[in-house]
Fold this protein.
Amino acid sequence: VGLDAALFNHLDFTVEWYKKAISGLLFPKQILANGGGAAPPVVNICDFQNTGLDISANYHARAGKDFTFNIGANVMTYKSDITYIPSPGYFDFGASRDNDIVRNEVGHPIGAFFGYQTMGIYQSDADAAKGATYSGAKAGSFIYKDVNGDGVIDANDRTWIGNPNPKFTYGLNLSANYKAFDFTMMFYGSQGNQDFNYVKYWTDFYGSFPGGKNLDLYNKAAIVANGQVTNPGATLPAASFLQAMGSNTVSSFYVENGSFLKCRVAQLGYTFDPKLLSKVGVDKLHLYVQATNLFMITKYTGLDPELVPSLSVNGDGVNQSAAFGIDYGAYPNNQKQYIVGINLTF
């Protein structure tokens, strides 16, 4: 359902609401442990629907004799909802060193992260022995939320820890012309999405990888002496090769704010007078300088918050292709580039 309108010879806008239902999405079927090394068959297993609102507006006008400009903006929002999965009503995917990262379940958005909720660091062995705990917990270990309240931290305490679907995405396009000069600037942003920064598995834990560590490991890891954390502000577990429910555990520790605003393109150009060019047999000459990915505003600590699905994780391309919002260390898509160009027409 939509509305298109043009008003006052300056403003064009479009408003569209949609509902899209999709049935029989292909995913690998989960098989029992006694299936051994058998490859899971790809089956039609998931129905879901998206409802959303798309709004775009474009304002164009002239200011004086030689100056024209155009301002375009758009906002797109959608709500994802899984409507049917065969018994038990969910399936997991999105590979990690522990459990799968993603759970698709009826009544929840597609691609949501599922794991343990971290609540800080145990400050002493005595604290780790109290209340809801787990085997191997001690001073400098993660504290996990006892979701079901049974006094034990186990697989039954896994819960929803993040959503890669944005609340909305938006764009802003600016262009202007003054005499022979032209200017273009394009922005793109995403708001409300969360990213699973799995790169921190290799960089933020002592025992996971022998090199390439983040300085946070040395500045923010708990230091333990005589069963007591001596730096109470620590946000990372104590450095150890043997971390009970630490680096391997799928938890909210990896979930970050993935919202961002990027300046995609900024370009300034100049078009030479055709009368001068005609003397040398040239119809048009346009010179320009352009910058791509000029800047980015985000709180995400990884290289690029704009994550695309990984196509080949653990050899299971179909499974992981829908695991969007998970940063496995893919090459970033936000490198700055500076370009000088010439357009010639003879």
Notes: The first strand starts at residue 2 and ends at 7. The helical segments are 125-129, 200-203, 216-220, 274-277, 317-320.
